Fold:
Amino acid sequence: MAATDLLAGRATLSRSLRLLSAFRFEQTDPDRFYGALASDTVAMVDDLWRATTGTSSRNLTVLDVGGGPGYFASAFTEAGLHYVGVEPDPGEMHAAAPRTHSRAGSFVRASGTALPFADGSVDICLSSNVAEHVAQPWRLGEEMLRVTRPGGLAVLSYTVWLGPFGGHEMGLSHYLGGYRAAERYTRKHGHRPKNDYGSSLFAVSAADGLRWARSTGALAAAFPRYHPRWAWGLTRVPGVREFLVSNLVLVLRPT
Structure:
Protein backbone atom coordinates (compact mmCIF):
# COMPACT_ATOMS: atom_id res chain seq x y z
CA MET A 1 0.00 0.00 0.00
CA ALA A 2 1.30 3.49 -0.88
CA ALA A 3 2.03 5.79 2.07
CA THR A 4 -0.82 8.15 1.22
CA ASP A 5 -3.55 5.61 0.37
CA LEU A 6 -5.47 5.92 3.65
CA LEU A 7 -4.97 9.67 3.90
CA ALA A 8 -6.31 10.11 0.38
CA GLY A 9 -9.68 8.83 1.56
CA ARG A 10 -9.88 11.61 4.14
CA ALA A 11 -8.54 14.35 1.86
CA THR A 12 -11.93 15.69 0.86
CA LEU A 13 -13.07 19.17 -0.09
CA SER A 14 -15.09 19.42 3.12
CA ARG A 15 -11.94 18.74 5.18
CA SER A 16 -10.05 21.41 3.25
CA LEU A 17 -12.81 23.96 3.82
CA ARG A 18 -13.03 23.08 7.51
CA LEU A 19 -9.30 23.64 8.00
CA LEU A 20 -9.32 26.81 5.93
CA SER A 21 -12.10 28.16 8.13
CA ALA A 22 -10.06 27.40 11.25
CA PHE A 23 -7.01 29.21 9.85
CA ARG A 24 -8.86 32.52 10.18
CA PHE A 25 -8.65 32.24 13.96
CA GLU A 26 -4.90 31.70 14.34
CA GLN A 27 -4.36 35.11 15.96
CA THR A 28 -7.75 35.72 17.59
CA ASP A 29 -8.67 32.25 18.88
CA PRO A 30 -5.58 30.00 18.88
CA ASP A 31 -7.39 27.22 20.75
CA ARG A 32 -9.80 26.88 17.86
CA PHE A 33 -7.09 27.00 15.21
CA TYR A 34 -4.38 24.86 16.80
CA GLY A 35 -6.87 22.41 18.26
CA ALA A 36 -8.27 21.65 14.81
CA LEU A 37 -4.78 21.50 13.30
CA ALA A 38 -3.52 19.15 16.02
CA SER A 39 -6.43 16.73 15.59
CA ASP A 40 -5.99 16.67 11.83
CA THR A 41 -2.23 16.15 12.18
CA VAL A 42 -2.67 13.14 14.46
CA ALA A 43 -5.07 11.61 11.94
CA MET A 44 -2.64 12.33 9.08
CA VAL A 45 0.32 10.74 10.87
CA ASP A 46 -1.72 7.68 11.84
CA ASP A 47 -2.96 7.28 8.26
CA LEU A 48 0.59 7.48 6.93
CA TRP A 49 1.86 4.97 9.48
CA ARG A 50 -0.96 2.48 8.90
CA ALA A 51 -0.61 2.68 5.12
CA THR A 52 3.16 2.24 5.30
CA THR A 53 3.42 -0.49 7.94
CA GLY A 54 -0.05 -2.05 8.19
CA THR A 55 -0.07 -1.49 11.95
CA SER A 56 -1.51 1.07 14.38
CA SER A 57 0.61 3.99 15.57
CA ARG A 58 -0.65 3.53 19.13
CA ASN A 59 2.14 3.19 21.74
CA LEU A 60 4.79 4.45 19.33
CA THR A 61 7.12 7.32 20.19
CA VAL A 62 6.61 10.51 18.20
CA LEU A 63 9.17 13.29 18.33
CA ASP A 64 7.63 16.64 17.39
CA VAL A 65 10.28 19.13 16.29
CA GLY A 66 8.97 22.60 17.06
CA GLY A 67 6.23 21.25 19.30
CA GLY A 68 5.16 24.69 20.49
CA PRO A 69 2.76 25.26 23.36
CA GLY A 70 1.22 21.82 23.80
CA TYR A 71 -1.76 21.43 21.46
CA PHE A 72 -0.03 18.63 19.55
CA ALA A 73 1.14 17.07 22.81
CA SER A 74 -2.41 16.71 24.07
CA ALA A 75 -3.74 15.38 20.76
CA PHE A 76 -1.02 12.75 20.28
CA THR A 77 -1.17 11.64 23.91
CA GLU A 78 -4.94 11.23 23.72
CA ALA A 79 -4.40 9.07 20.61
CA GLY A 80 -2.15 6.74 22.62
CA LEU A 81 1.30 7.78 21.38
CA HIS A 82 4.31 8.62 23.54
CA TYR A 83 4.89 12.27 22.73
CA VAL A 84 8.19 14.16 23.01
CA GLY A 85 8.22 17.80 21.93
CA VAL A 86 11.30 19.84 21.01
CA GLU A 87 10.99 23.61 21.25
CA PRO A 88 13.82 26.18 21.33
CA ASP A 89 11.65 29.09 22.53
CA PRO A 90 10.54 28.92 26.19
CA GLY A 91 7.90 31.53 25.44
CA GLU A 92 6.25 29.18 22.97
CA MET A 93 6.31 26.35 25.49
CA HIS A 94 4.12 28.37 27.86
CA ALA A 95 1.80 30.00 25.32
CA ALA A 96 -1.12 27.56 25.35
CA ALA A 97 -4.36 28.05 27.24
CA PRO A 98 -4.57 26.40 30.70
CA ARG A 99 -6.61 23.43 29.48
CA THR A 100 -3.88 22.46 26.99
CA HIS A 101 -1.09 23.36 29.36
CA SER A 102 -1.63 20.17 31.37
CA ARG A 103 1.70 19.11 29.90
CA ALA A 104 0.83 15.84 28.27
CA GLY A 105 3.97 14.15 27.01
CA SER A 106 7.52 15.36 27.55
CA PHE A 107 9.32 18.47 26.33
CA VAL A 108 12.94 19.29 25.63
CA ARG A 109 14.31 22.76 24.99
CA ALA A 110 16.62 22.39 22.00
CA SER A 111 17.18 23.37 18.38
CA GLY A 112 15.68 21.29 15.59
CA THR A 113 18.96 21.56 13.70
CA ALA A 114 20.88 19.86 16.55
CA LEU A 115 18.50 17.36 18.14
CA PRO A 116 19.77 15.92 21.46
CA PHE A 117 18.65 12.38 20.64
CA ALA A 118 20.48 9.24 19.59
CA ASP A 119 20.44 7.91 16.03
CA GLY A 120 17.35 5.84 15.27
CA SER A 121 15.78 6.49 18.66
CA VAL A 122 12.17 7.35 17.69
CA ASP A 123 9.48 5.69 15.60
CA ILE A 124 8.05 8.86 14.08
CA CYS A 125 9.64 12.28 13.76
CA LEU A 126 7.28 15.12 12.87
CA SER A 127 7.87 18.76 12.05
CA SER A 128 4.76 20.81 11.33
CA ASN A 129 5.18 24.32 9.92
CA VAL A 130 8.67 24.82 11.30
CA ALA A 131 11.07 24.55 8.33
CA GLU A 132 10.14 28.00 7.02
CA HIS A 133 11.21 29.47 10.37
CA VAL A 134 14.81 28.22 10.36
CA ALA A 135 17.68 29.42 8.21
CA GLN A 136 18.82 25.86 7.39
CA PRO A 137 15.62 23.87 6.78
CA TRP A 138 17.33 20.84 5.24
CA ARG A 139 19.73 20.54 8.14
CA LEU A 140 16.54 20.24 10.19
CA GLY A 141 15.37 17.54 7.80
CA GLU A 142 18.65 15.65 8.07
CA GLU A 143 18.40 15.67 11.86
CA MET A 144 14.86 14.33 11.65
CA LEU A 145 16.06 11.45 9.48
CA ARG A 146 19.00 10.75 11.78
CA VAL A 147 16.88 10.24 14.89
CA THR A 148 14.17 8.18 13.13
CA ARG A 149 14.68 4.42 13.28
CA PRO A 150 14.89 2.35 10.08
CA GLY A 151 11.36 1.53 8.98
CA GLY A 152 9.99 4.53 10.86
CA LEU A 153 8.61 7.74 9.39
CA ALA A 154 9.87 11.30 9.21
CA VAL A 155 7.08 13.72 8.26
CA LEU A 156 8.20 17.25 7.41
CA SER A 157 5.45 19.74 6.56
CA TYR A 158 6.14 23.39 5.79
CA THR A 159 4.57 26.52 4.34
CA VAL A 160 5.73 27.27 0.80
CA TRP A 161 6.91 30.87 0.50
CA LEU A 162 5.12 31.81 -2.71
CA GLY A 163 1.83 30.30 -1.59
CA PRO A 164 -0.94 32.55 -0.24
CA PHE A 165 0.07 31.91 3.40
CA GLY A 166 3.82 32.29 2.86
CA GLY A 167 3.86 35.70 4.50
CA HIS A 168 2.05 34.46 7.60
CA GLU A 169 0.60 37.47 9.46
CA MET A 170 2.04 39.83 6.84
CA GLY A 171 -0.65 38.61 4.45
CA LEU A 172 -0.19 38.79 0.71
CA SER A 173 2.31 41.66 0.95
CA HIS A 174 5.08 39.03 0.93
CA TYR A 175 4.67 39.04 -2.85
CA LEU A 176 6.31 42.49 -2.71
CA GLY A 177 9.37 40.89 -1.14
CA GLY A 178 9.99 39.60 2.38
CA TYR A 179 11.87 42.59 3.78
CA ARG A 180 9.48 45.06 2.23
CA ALA A 181 6.51 43.15 3.63
CA ALA A 182 8.03 43.16 7.13
CA GLU A 183 8.63 46.91 6.98
CA ARG A 184 5.10 47.50 5.75
CA TYR A 185 3.71 45.44 8.61
CA THR A 186 5.83 47.35 11.13
CA ARG A 187 4.61 50.73 9.89
CA LYS A 188 1.00 49.59 10.07
CA HIS A 189 1.08 47.86 13.46
CA GLY A 190 3.86 49.68 15.30
CA HIS A 191 5.90 46.54 15.95
CA ARG A 192 7.80 43.91 14.02
CA PRO A 193 5.88 40.82 12.88
CA LYS A 194 6.33 37.72 15.02
CA ASN A 195 7.34 35.92 11.82
CA ASP A 196 9.94 38.48 10.75
CA TYR A 197 11.49 37.86 7.35
CA GLY A 198 15.21 37.13 7.53
CA SER A 199 15.22 36.25 11.24
CA SER A 200 12.21 34.05 12.05
CA LEU A 201 10.76 33.55 8.58
CA PHE A 202 12.53 32.46 5.40
CA ALA A 203 11.63 31.81 1.77
CA VAL A 204 11.45 28.03 1.41
CA SER A 205 10.32 26.70 -1.96
CA ALA A 206 8.54 23.50 -2.91
CA ALA A 207 11.26 22.73 -5.46
CA ASP A 208 14.02 22.91 -2.85
CA GLY A 209 12.14 20.61 -0.49
CA LEU A 210 11.48 18.03 -3.16
CA ARG A 211 15.08 18.19 -4.36
CA TRP A 212 16.41 17.62 -0.86
CA ALA A 213 13.94 14.82 -0.10
CA ARG A 214 14.79 12.95 -3.30
CA SER A 215 18.51 13.29 -2.58
CA THR A 216 18.09 11.37 0.70
CA GLY A 217 16.79 8.26 -1.06
CA ALA A 218 14.11 7.99 1.65
CA LEU A 219 11.22 9.90 0.05
CA ALA A 220 8.00 7.88 0.26
CA ALA A 221 5.45 10.58 -0.65
CA ALA A 222 4.95 14.29 -1.21
CA PHE A 223 1.58 16.05 -1.28
CA PRO A 224 -0.17 19.34 -0.45
CA ARG A 225 -1.24 19.08 3.17
CA TYR A 226 -4.56 20.90 3.08
CA HIS A 227 -5.77 20.14 -0.44
CA PRO A 228 -8.41 17.60 -1.48
CA ARG A 229 -7.04 14.47 -3.12
CA TRP A 230 -7.96 15.56 -6.64
CA ALA A 231 -5.58 18.55 -6.31
CA TRP A 232 -2.52 16.59 -5.17
CA GLY A 233 -1.18 16.50 -8.71
CA LEU A 234 -0.18 20.16 -8.30
CA THR A 235 2.91 18.94 -6.44
CA ARG A 236 4.28 17.54 -9.71
CA VAL A 237 3.92 20.77 -11.72
CA PRO A 238 7.03 23.01 -11.53
CA GLY A 239 6.29 26.68 -11.06
CA VAL A 240 2.59 26.20 -10.44
CA ARG A 241 3.27 24.26 -7.23
CA GLU A 242 5.09 27.22 -5.73
CA PHE A 243 1.90 29.28 -5.78
CA LEU A 244 -0.82 26.67 -5.31
CA VAL A 245 0.53 23.91 -3.05
CA SER A 246 0.57 26.25 0.00
CA ASN A 247 1.86 23.64 2.45
CA LEU A 248 4.03 20.74 1.31
CA VAL A 249 4.30 17.45 3.19
CA LEU A 250 7.42 15.34 2.68
CA VAL A 251 7.10 11.78 3.98
CA LEU A 252 10.42 9.95 4.37
CA ARG A 253 11.12 6.39 5.46
CA PRO A 254 14.70 5.70 6.58
CA THR A 255 16.12 2.28 5.75
User: Anything to note?
Assistant: Residues 164-202 form one domain.
